[in-house]
């Protein structure tokens, strides 16, 4: 046996850049590692944030619990609302609409997931659309919402309501900053003008601010957004460009007046050269158009967006340019890139904050000593590569599985070649409705089944084990699930009433 050698621990971390990525990173590390590590965050008020209305997936609740965030206070302070899923309009073909809801579909029987029985019942003309068999997809269009009540029976759909949030990204960063500073994070105002490396190892030793001050640390977290100041400009980690699969490269974001009660879902409407988002907040509605500059001009995109708002625009549209893809290394030497500095997948399924959260949690699990063992870096990069690629494929699915042929954009994405990993998933489902989740990928059976059905992929058959259940038992299951879902949704309050009762924001 070899004798263990004492290694020097990391004592100082500098988070370069604020916003959601920076303050989430600083808060999580400070809360988890306490006084063992000094966390300093550097940000510049001059540079500002991309901050627009933000939508999330349910995993954010785990992050909130990690740093002891009170849900009601969080929703109040960020003008937040609740999210049961995403409504997709005009994606499969113009006139189509479906909801990708969180949670589960129906109730499994034996080894078979519910949707397998539904496929047989539907083929026999004895089942409704799949949306009738999930609490979230029934409740969302009706404007119903509630958090799981403590006294709900364990077998009730109300006991396991899965939900996420909508919130103002600028207010969220401000909320996180206050929380992080209370945990001991030190904030330094300033613009980084130089990154200083060790001449032999290439490791980053410090950054120089415009004021002349130098910030040194054992480890640096790059949260500088698309600039990727440390991971790319300095370390040149490289970039995998996924534009050939996801051609949208620009977005316009604009808030508008709230004209109706906030819906408990995000809305995504397909347009001629991309798609438009609608994110309802308590005080306003966030809107944006994600599009490909190959297929529409900026001025036409602006006209389209402004002409389709619910209410009066509250600002001029904010242009955002991006390139879909990721760094070849998200951890290189003593720099870890979190958020936009590490990569960008367009916000179609609200995965940006999840990828921040995933990056932070994996890094803390693989936290190094100051010798930065390469195996830790390699493991981290491989895990994050898998996470990004699986989300990438899920987003591509929305574009590629379509019947739309009304514009050059849709003709391109419908006929383009796709990753073999995605093709395998689509072929498997098209055969007999099967799906196998790989490892810890974000989106599971519920998500893939809803989107593939919603986008028009119809399985040719179903799992043979379905025929081992008597038809009357199978039909009884399908009918029972629909009735239980419907009766439980009837018990739920309206979304706006739940907010008013539990977490209404102070008027602004």
Task: Give an overview of the whole structure.
The protein has helices spanning 19-33, 60-66, 71-77, 114-123, 135-139, 169-182, 229-234, 298-306, 352-365, 374-400, 408-415, 420-432, 445-454, 471-490, 495-502, and strands at residues 12-16, 38-43, 53-55, 81-83, 85-89, 97-101, 164-168, 186-189, 192-197, 204-209, 214-216, 219-222, 239-241, 250-256, 266-271, 274-280, 285-291, 318-321, 325-327, 331-332, 335-337, 343-344. It has 508 residues and is α+β, with helices and mostly antiparallel strands. It has a single domain (12-245, 323-497), classed as FAD/NAD(P)-binding domain. The chain has a seven-stranded mixed β-sheet. A six-stranded mixed β-sheet has the order 8-2-1-12-21-20.
Tag the structure with descriptive keywords.
single chain; 508 residues; alpha+beta; FAD/NAD(P)-binding domain; 7-stranded mixed sheet; 6-stranded mixed sheet; 15 helices
Summarize the structure.
By secondary structure, the protein is α+β, with helices and mostly antiparallel strands.
């Amino acid at each position: 046996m070899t004798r263990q050698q004492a290694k020097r621990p990391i004592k100082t971390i500098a988070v370069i850049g604020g916003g959601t990525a920076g303050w989430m990173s600083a808060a999580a590390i400070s809360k988890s590692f306490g006084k063992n590590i000094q966390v300093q965050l550097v940000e510049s008020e001059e540079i500002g944030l991309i901050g627009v209305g933000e939508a999330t997936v349910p995993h954010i609740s785990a992050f909130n619990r990690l740093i002891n965030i009170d849900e009601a206070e969080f929703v109040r302070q960020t003008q937040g609302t609740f999210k049961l899923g995403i409504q997709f309009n005009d994606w499969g073909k113009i006139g189509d609409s479906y909801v990708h809801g969180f949670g589960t579909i129906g109730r499994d029987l034996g080894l078979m997931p519910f949707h397998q029985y539904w496929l047989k019942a539907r083929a026999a003309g004895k089942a409704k659309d799949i949306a009738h068999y999930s609490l979230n997809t029934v409740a969302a269009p009706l404007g119903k919402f509630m958090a799981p009540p403590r006294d709900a029976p364990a077998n009730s759909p109300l006991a396991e309501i899965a939900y996420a949030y909508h919130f103002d990204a600028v207010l969220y960063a401000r909320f996180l900053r206050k929380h992080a500073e209370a945990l001991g994070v030190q904030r330094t105002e300033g613009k980084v003008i130089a990154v200083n490396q060790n001449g032999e190892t290439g490791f980053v030793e410090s950054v120089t601010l415009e004021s002349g001050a130098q910030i040194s640390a054992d480890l640096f977290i790059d949260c500088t957004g698309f600039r990727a100041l440390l991971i790319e400009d300095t370390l040149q980690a490289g970039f995998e460009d996924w534009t050939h699969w996801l051609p949208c490269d620009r977005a316009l974001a604009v808030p508008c007046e709230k004209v109706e009660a906030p819906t408990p879902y995000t809305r995504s409407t397909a347009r001629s050269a991309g798609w438009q988002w609608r994110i309802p907040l308590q005080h306003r509605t966030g809107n944006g158009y994600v599009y490909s500059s190959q297929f529409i001009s900026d001025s036409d995109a602006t006209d389209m967006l402004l002409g389709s708002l619910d209410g009066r625009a509250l600002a001029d549209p904010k242009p955002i340019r991006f390139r879909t893809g990721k760094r070849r290394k998200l951890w290189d030497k003593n720099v870890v890139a979190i958020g936009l500095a590490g990569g960008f997948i367009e916000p179609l399924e609200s995965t940006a904050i999840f990828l921040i959260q995933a990056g932070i949690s994996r890094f803390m699990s693989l936290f190094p000593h100051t010798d930065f063992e390469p195996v830790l870096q390699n493991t981290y990069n491989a895990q994050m590569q898998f996470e990004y690629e699986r989300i990438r494929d899920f987003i591509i699915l929305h574009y590629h599985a379509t019947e739309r042929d009304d514009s050059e954009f849709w003709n391109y994405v419908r006929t383009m070649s796709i990753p073999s990993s995605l093709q395998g998933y689509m072929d498997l489902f098209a055969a007999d409705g099967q799906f196998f989740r790989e490892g810890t990928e974000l989106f599971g059976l519920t998500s893939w089944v809803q989107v593939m059905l919603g986008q028009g992929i119809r399985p040719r058959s179903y799992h043979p084990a379905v025929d081992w259940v008597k038809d009357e038992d199978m039909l009884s299951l399908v009918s029972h699930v629909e009735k239980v879902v419907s009766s439980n949704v009837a018990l739920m309050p309206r979304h706006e009433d739940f907010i008013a009762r539990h977490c209404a924001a102070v008027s602004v």
